[in-house]
Amino acid sequence: MKLGTRGSRLALWQAEWVKQRLGARGVAVEIVVIKTKGDAEAERPLQQMEGKGFFTREIEDALLEGRVDVAVHSLKDLPTALPAGLSLGAVPERADPADVLVTRADGPGSLLRLPEGARLGTSSARRVAQAKYLRPDLAVLPLRGNVPTRVEKVKTRGELDAALLALAGLRRLGLESAIAARLDPLEVMPAPGQGALGLELRAEDRAARDALRPLEHTPSARAVIAERAMLAALGGGCQAAIAAYVETAARESGQRLYGRVLALDGSVQLTASAAIDPSRPAAAGEAVARLLEAEGALALLAP
User: Pick the catalytic residue: 77, 99, 161, 205?
Assistant: First the structure.
């Protein structure tokens, strides 16, 4: 079985993780590295790039052409509408979806405690908007590149005072020591699908689907179905300031989806939530999208 992946350290870690899980079940696996548009234009802010699927399209092309059998994605990068002939084969157990703050060695461990006018790095529209909502005084600057490079720009190069990154990526790369603070997901809400992997395959490939089935984690899959349904209903992508988080409470109360839409300048923040019916997780996403639309979300998402 050939796994298609991007070539970053994080992407290769994720592909190797899948390879090991499949190998433990007797599946011989080869990793195939594919360069995507997002990798080729690594310093260009995502908001300036046209279309969707900057980190997935070329891998999906290889999948459709039969050059790979499974695509390993960070699920937050995968558009909600998949190309005809492709489908999700499995969502493994999700890592903590929270964002974290990385600061210089002497920096404070809180977004709210950063010095006035501090230089905060991120190129995510969602993170930019939430940072500006919470701290309009901060100088929010573009930050692209792979995860280690982003950390270096704060910790060793001194180009920034702080940066917002995903906890899952830092943990997977052994960079957890760089974290100054884990941010409350209800304060700085993650991207839909953050922390989860999406294993994509050709819809008719039963052998690949059977091989991936043991990797499926039902609670994680349920959560990301709800989050991605909300994103799809709002018509947003990675260039929009849309966030989602599924909170798992006590067993008797199950999972609850929170959704958020912001003005890109952080001047307006809308939040709504709904309980997830385990048998119909997408319905929660659609319900949260309707609640956000009732609050005026579509005006914030208009080009």
Answer: 77
Q: How far apart are CA 42 and CA 271, in angstroms?
A: 31
Residue-wise pLDDT tens digits, 153-183: 999 998 999 999 999 999 999 999 999 999 9
List the domains of the chain with CATH numbers: 2-93+196-216 (3.40.190.10), 99-182 (3.40.190.10), 229-301 (3.30.160.40)
Please, which contacts does 17-23 make with residues 24 or more away whose CB atoms are closer than 8 Å? Answer: 17/172, 17/197, 18/70, 18/72, 18/92, 18/197, 18/199, 18/215, 21/92, 21/214, 21/215, 22/211, 22/212, 22/215
In the block, which residue shows the tokens 């529209």?
125
Respond yes or no: is residue 77 known to be catalytic. yes
Q: Dihedral, CA atoms, 196, 200, 206, 207, nearest 10 degrees?
A: -80
Q: How many residues does the chain have?
A: 303
The segments of the chain whose pLDDT lies below 70 read: 38-54, 237-238, 250-253
Q: What pLDDT score does 108 carry?
A: 75
Q: Is the dihedral of CA 78, 79, 83, 88 positive or negative?
A: positive
Q: What is the pLDDT of residues 255-285, one digit of tens each?
A: 999 999 999 999 999 999 999 999 999 999 9
Distance (Å, whole) CA 15 – CA 11: 6
Q: Quick count: other Cβ atoms within 10 Å of Cβ 184?
A: 12
Q: What pLDDT score does 96 carry?
A: 97
Q: Is the pTM of this model over 0.90?
A: yes
